[in-house]
UniProtKB/TrEMBL annotation:
Transmembrane segments: 18-36
Domain AB hydrolase-1: 94-218
Keyword annotations of the record: Membrane, Transmembrane, Transmembrane helix
Protein name in the entry: Pimeloyl-ACP methyl ester carboxylesterase
SUPFAM superfamilies reported for this sequence: alpha/beta-Hydrolases (SSF53474)
Matches recorded under InterPro entries: AB_hydrolase_1 (IPR000073), AB_hydrolase_fold (IPR029058), AB_hydrolase_sf (IPR050266)
GO cellular component, one term: membrane
Pfam families: Abhydrolase_1 (PF00561)
Gene3D superfamilies: alpha/beta hydrolase
């Protein structure tokens, strides 16, 4: 395991304006579903006013992103998935970025400059979440989650992509790799939830004040700050976007099923697991140990023909993507480069 980089500064800086916890609403989604039990079988906006508030914040947050070369809406059996493509300077096979719950594409703004040095980048809004993807049919479990994403990738020019998933997006990427490995060149899991460890009870309990839409915004901000290592979240466009989604959008999906070690050990593509040492979405030592054991990555060992690396960013919060954007990009580039070299060899 490589040594962790120097500790980042926690305060919200302009280039780190997207370090709001991308998966903080994962627990909230489950709690909202339990307490409020929306009658619609698919995710939906609770009011036109709430939808307008979210997309106003979405557009402001998206202004920090590079201009996409293309935006497309991919029709799947479960709804329409919004996909953006950004042209990069590097020659690596394209990456696809999967955000966490309620975060949507703008969460990646701080990562785009360094990732575009590696190659082209696709980014999408998760189906059944607040964003520009529109769910039309129920998503009942891991197979359905894998199917809509597989159909999305299949509609793109490439046969397979280098998947990069943050938090719930990490779970979603791993779930696709398990059910449809043909669409995954390599797999980068950034502090994924319910993948290497379960969500701690304290985090679940702290989510309760943020899980009810009519509670004051302060409860949602407090929970988001807690998952981001105490960083302030007020008056930040991407934080406003996440908070608006949490308040005004009712998700109607089951919580992600914990991925098993057997499933992880069966993955055949190169895998990079990045664990935040101060994450509150799992127990970091447990998650790191599980990742090393399941992926066969202890002491930098390769597993079969695929490169397996587990790296712990010791001082990072669950908002690790905004705290270590350049370091993460370098790790991802190394994974993609190693994978391409092994494939050609």
């Amino acid at each position: 395991m490589n040594p962790a980089p120097a500790a980042p500064q926690r305060p919200w800086l302009p280039r780190r304006g997207v370090i709001v916890p991308a998966a903080s609403a994962l627990v909230i989604a489950g709690l909202v579903g339990f307490f409020l039990r929306p009658t619609s079988p698919v995710g939906h906006w609770n009011s036109a006013e709430g939808e307008e508030k979210f997309f106003s914040a979405y557009d402001k947050a998206f202004a920090s992103m590079p201009d996409p070369a293309e935006s497309r809406d991919v029709r799947t059996d479960f709804g329409i998935v919004r996909v953006y493509r950004f042209e990069g300077a590097g020659e690596a096979a394209p990456m696809m970025l999967l955000p966490g719950t309620a975060a949507s594409t703008p969460i990646w703004a701080g990562n785009m400059p360094s990732l575009l040095e590696v190659g082209d980048v696709y980014a999408l809004d998760l189906l059944g979440e607040p964003g520009r993807s529109v769910q039309s049919s129920p998503i009942s479990g891991p197979e359905d989650e894998a199917e809509w994403l597989a159909q999305t990738v299949a509609a793109l020019p490439e046969d397979s992509l280098n998947l990069v998933g943050l938090s719930l997006g990490g779970w979603t990427a791993a779930n696709l790799a398990i059910h449809h490995p043909e669409h995954v060149r390599s797999l980068t899991l950034i502090d994924p939830v319910n993948t290497f460890d379960s969500i701690p009870l304290e985090t679940v309990l702290r989510a309760v004040p943020a899980s009810v839409p009519w509670f004051p915004r302060a409860g949602r901000d407090a929970f988001n700050s807690y998952t981001a290592g105490g960083a302030p979240v007020e008056d930040v466009p991407v934080a406003d976007m996440i908070e608006a989604g949490m308040q005004h959008y009712s998700m109607k999906k089951p919580q992600p099923v914990r991925i098993t070690e057997q499933q992880l050990s069966g993955l055949t593509m190169p895998v990079l697991a990045l664990i935040a040492g101060d994450s509150v979405m799992h127990d970091p030592p447990t998650a790191a140990a599980t990742a090393k054991r399941a992926l066969g990555a202890s002491a930098g060992r390769d597993s079969g023909a695929a490169s397996r690396t587990v790296r712990v960013y010791e001082d990072a919060s669950h908002a690790v993507n905004g705290e270590y954007p350049e370091e993460m990009a370098a790790d991802i580039e190394q994974l993609i480069t190693d994978g391409a070299r092994r494939s050609s060899g």
